[in-house]
Amino acid sequence: MQARPKPTEQADVVVAGAGIAGISTAYHLSVRHGVEKVVLCDPLPPLTLTSDKSTECYRNWWPGPGSGMVDLMNRSIDLLEGWAAESGNIFNLSRRGYLYVTADPHRLASMRSEAEAISTLGAGELRVHRGTPDDPAYTPSLPSGYEDAVGGADLFTDGDSLRTHFPYLSRAVVGGLHARRAGWFSAQQLGAWLLDRVRTSGARLITDKVVAVEASDGVVRGVRLQSGASIATTRFVNAAGPLVGEVGKLAGAELPVFSEVHRKISFRDSHSSLPRTAPMLIWNDEQKLGWTDEERSELIADDRLAYLTDPLGPGAHCRPEGSGEAVTVLGLWEYHTDVRTPTFPIPDDPLYPEIVMRGLATMVPAFGSYLERLPKPHIDGGYYTKTRENRPLIGPAGPEGSVVVGALSGYGVMAAAAAGELGALHVTGAALPAYARWFEPDRYEDPEYLELLDRMTDSGQI
Ligand SMILES: Cc1cc2nc3c(=O)[nH]c(=O)nc-3n(C[C@H](O)[C@H](O)[C@H](O)COP(=O)(O)OP(=O)(O)OC[C@H]3O[C@@H](n4cnc5c(N)ncnc54)[C@H](O)[C@@H]3O)c2cc1C
Question: How far is the centre of ligand 1, averaged over its atoms, from the C-alpha of 167 (Å)?
Fold first, then answer.
């Protein structure tokens, strides 16, 4: 038997993955907990696999059961606001909110009961605007910045009063919910700022891939890297994003995750269809796209495309991007779910820009002016790697000393601050917040949780 090569170096913790989750975890370990030898390891440049493809939006408005998601997001936003104050808001944290709109009175009624439930979970006060003189005051969002902004949400049960504030919405809209502890920021800038602090505190970023996690007597002993180097360590963090399942296997953990392709377009809104001060806008209804007879026949004749003539799911969404002279708009809509093993680059969908534009034109009719001739979009995207109930995996998984911070689905940028903090608490053995139990990977062994799982109907994902 060949003797094992001696480890090249020793570390207190090795973090696999320099996306926003791994960088945040490394930050909490090295800067907040003073862990001396943290090695952050990624074969790619930091933040380049998924974390730079996001819409970069955040919100504390998440459904139950339980307050776990609201608590996690509130904590994350507290941390984001703290970092914004500390850095002079280098990552442009804004607070425009998420505006969910509907053209369906039944949907509006269910949005109201969902909003009442979310409000009681700690997401903030719900103010209901009926279009009557005794309505509570509605405070418009700040165009930039995040301080002194209102929280909770404003529910408009009347389309006309909603359009008073958002006149560019379709006449078909009958109401909407404006979640206020929400907005967007530059995840790239935030990640770069955190990484800088991580390096200054003595942690190291190495360009390499973890190919094996070694354990003996049920305890992590080290990792092997693609370059042939190895690092002796008793603590390992799996923050491998869409590859979290694969890296979990290296550590002997079967993680219950799957991945969906999600794309995004950005385009020049040269017709000024969307005001630059708009919030994140979400069409909350299913919709049937208006094809001409000829288009419809062509689609129906193609088995792979015929579904585009059926009602497509809710969730077409968009927001303005950039400040000053910028005229960019980001648009997204996963009108069909595409679950697959992650491969890179993600698969093409040549129809995506047109379908998204059609979906957005239902909500903001002025986008219809682009349907004759689409602006040349930039398309990118990645994977939402998620659990069945769309809640993350944060906690011990595999041999002692191995922790996962993953399955961050379509909310990893907004959750990363608190998810990394929670991961670091697990690694250091410090006291955990009450919400930690919602995210521990062994929750699936709890019969009570499994029962709850069957009752979870709303994943909260757009
Ligand atoms: C189109 C789109 C829109 C989105 N919009 C939003 C949004 O508005 N708000 C929001 O909060 N989230 C959003 N998300 C989700 C968010 O982008 C992700 O949840 C988040 O970026 C995941 O971060 P991560 O660090 O876990 O993964 P990643 O950024 O993918 O980083 C994982 C890293 O692990 C590395 N790695 C993998 N295997 C190994 C290994 N064996 N050894 C070492 N390193 C390894 C990879 O190279 C990669 O760099 C969106 C995602 C998409 C695709």
Answer: 35
Number of compact structural domains in the chain: 2
The alpha carbon torsion through 62, 286, 155, 111 (nearest 10 deg) reads -60
The predicted-structure confidence for 252-298, as pLDDT tens digits, reads as follows: 999 999 999 999 999 999 999 999 999 999 999 999 999 999 999 99
Number of separate helices (H) and strands (E) present in the chain: 10, 21
The pTM score is 0.97
Per-residue pLDDT of 234-263, as tens digits, reads 999 999 999 999 999 999 999 999 999 999
Question: In this structure, are 292 and 361 located in the same domain?
Answer: yes
Ligand 1 proximal residues by C-beta, below 6 Å: 16-22, 41-44, 49-51, 53-58, 209-210, 239-243, 247, 262-264, 381-382, 406, 408-414
In CATH, what number is assigned to the domain containing residue 332? 3.30.9.10
* Cα-to-centroid distance, 290 and ligand 1 (Å): 35
Residue 68 lies in a domain: no
Q: CB of 47 within 8 A of CB of 392?
A: no
Which one of 247, 413, 461 would you pick to mutate in the ligand 1 pocket, going by the greatest count of ligand atoms within 8 A of its CB?
413
